[in-house]
Structure formats: C-alpha cells, structure tokens
Amino acid sequence: MRISRAALLVLMLGGCHRTATIDVPEADRIECAIGGAPEFARDCAVEHSADATRLMLRHPNGGFRRLDVASDGTLSAADGADVASGHPLADGRLEVSIGNDRYRLPARK
Q: Residue by residue, what is the 3-state secondary structure of the chain?
C-alpha cells in the first residue's frame, strides 16, 4: 500500500491539532470568563513582565491576551484588533474585557 506525500502530510498535521492546558499554581490564577462564558472561574493565569509594563493573561486552553500597563496603572490591549476596557469592582479588583473575554485582576492604588 502506497501513501502519497500529500496524504502523509495531512495525517501528520491532523495529529498536531491538540489543545494545550496550563498548570499554574493557585496563587497565580485569576478569575476569567473566556469566549463569552456567563460565569467566572479561577482558571486563568497572570504573568508580569520583569519591568511590570506588560501582563500576559493565559487561558486554560493555551490561548492568551497581552496587556500593556501604563505608568498611571491604566491598561490597554498590547496586540490584536480588540480594545481593552475595564471598570472597578466593589471588592477592589478591576474587571477587564477584551473581545468576548473577561478577567478580574487585583487592582493597585
């Protein structure tokens, strides 16, 4: 039985399409609602750049969003076409929305 190179390539690429998961300590997790989910879950991770000017928000499926942090503490989407918007919550956190994704971040004063 002969398999053409094109068919072999398709089979190999098909095996590469897997979703990744992240394993992050509970202390580094934040609440998020990804893809328009109605409920928040403590499933996302937040990473800070060394100079604290960028946040990386990692989704449990391997996706992510990047935010730039201005010197006054305001946030903006670092890439992509979606705009970041946010509002403070009564418990002192900041709820940030980017596209259909929402995150609850600890706010600094």
A: CCCCHHHHHHHHHHHHCCCCCCCCCHHHEEEEEHHHCCCCEEEEEEEECCCCCEEEEECCCCCEEEEEECCCCCEEECCCCCCEEEEECCCCEEEEEECCEEEEEECCC
pLDDT tens-place values along the chain, 109 residues long: 443 333 333 333 333 333 333 344 466 899 999 999 999 999 999 998 888 889 999 999 999 999 998 888 788 999 888 999 999 999 989 999 999 999 999 876 5
Answer whether 0.85 is exceeded by the pTM.
no
Distance CA(63)–CA(20), nearest Å, equals 9
Question: CA torsion angle for 82, 102, 104, 28 (degrees, to 10)?
Answer: -90
Cα end-to-end span (Å), the chain: 68
